[in-house]
Amino acid sequence: MALEVIILAAGKGTRMKSVKPKVLHELAGKSLVARVVEIAKSLNPSKVHLVYGHGGEQIIAAFDGQPLNLIEQAEQKGTGHAVAQVLPDIDPDNEILILYGDVPLIDSETLNRLTEKASSGFSLLTVDLPSPDGYGRIVRDTDEKVVAIVEHKDASFAQLAITEVNTGVMCVSGACLRRWLPLLSSENSQGEYYLTDIVAMAESEDICIETEQPKETFEVEGINDRLQLSRMERVFQIKQAEKLMAQGVTLMDPARFDLRGTLSAGTDSTIDINVVIEGEVTLGSNIRIGPNCVIRNSSIGDGVEILANSLIEDSKVSNDCIIGPYARLRPGSELKSNVKVGNFVEIKKSTLEVGSKVNHLSYIGDATVGEHANIGAGTITCNYDGVNKFQTEIGAGAFIGSNTSLIAPVKIGKNATTGAGSAISKDVSDENLAIARGKQRNIDTWQRPVKKT
Ligand code: UD1
Ligand code: MG
Fold it and tell me: Within a 10 A sphere around the Cβ of 228, how many other Cβ atoms?
């Protein structure tokens, strides 16, 4: 039997107090529902259906062009009604897994165990909660057989004491759903079509409902407000941090580390507090990252040292470079090995060859810097004339004096030198010295002004 997944995400999420539908709020840099879609896809289903309602346009835009069957539930009349919207699109010969768009940390292993148990036609993911308030209670008979799910608001006093609850995640044959969903009624305390009522229908047909539990409770926790979102974020971040430490990376404080994306890392690197990693990041081995750094979509080679408060984005840093503190590598920066980029230096769309140095207070944009060139403090590549951008080429071994303005397009030859404070607008040949600044005059007759009385 092939698998299809239905993700329920039509609920409004009133408690988020947001114009954005709840499921589009992000956990670790990715929307809740995108996480669920990703987990669903990891099970290799033949189809993934997403039932949306509130904020429809935003949901459609978020999944534009993706192979997803988006189905609108115009009015939210309950979970049973939501699944019923998909009935025309499901194959009765398939197993149908039902997930919630606001339960983002469900584990694919748990789901695999659940779907394996659905060969009888119906399997249910349940969990034991010491305080089961608000959840549907799992009612079992004296043989421990599941006979019904009773919603909290419809439960008797005795049923309220049951601590085994419905997570909402279930796997049911398409044929059963086709048979049962049209029979649901909304005669209950909430006036909704409860999906959970199909449990009693299965029981009346003598279909045995298998149950499975998640390894950890957070897997089945839903998010309703921003407080829960922040708590789940921490749970997820700690899990990621634990994985990273197990792989041989030292985190100075796993509670102050955030990974919003994917990180592949070698061993023996140390990451200080408040480091944020975003997008796709690759770290080599023996790297030191100081406090308060942000690294986004970049690769960092072995032995690199990134000092406090540096920001690296869409860049490639080779082995043994030293960056920061307070350095900024903007998109398109490439540092070959042993490069030094010091404090208050901004690099954009530039390549710095082996051993070159830009140690202080500089802007290097749209430039190439040759091997072992040394860029003095305060050097600026004037790459923009207000309309177009131009390139600066700095040859190997060049020495750029402090506070040089390199007015692009301009080329500085190999081993050439520029005098401090020069505004260089013409190319400089190899080995030459270029000085372009006002000549110094010393005036020995000059009198300092004195204050009028
Ligand atoms: C549901 C279950 C309850 C279970 C609990 C677990 C039912 C009747 N009850 O209750 O047994 O313990 O989840 O969290 O199924 N949704 C739609 N369309 C709708 C209604 C809901 O798409 O018309 C979606 C929501 O966006 C949400 C999910 O279904 O993702 C669950 O809905 P919710 O209203 O939270 O159900 P509960 O009352 O909490
Ligand atoms: Mg709920």
Answer: 15
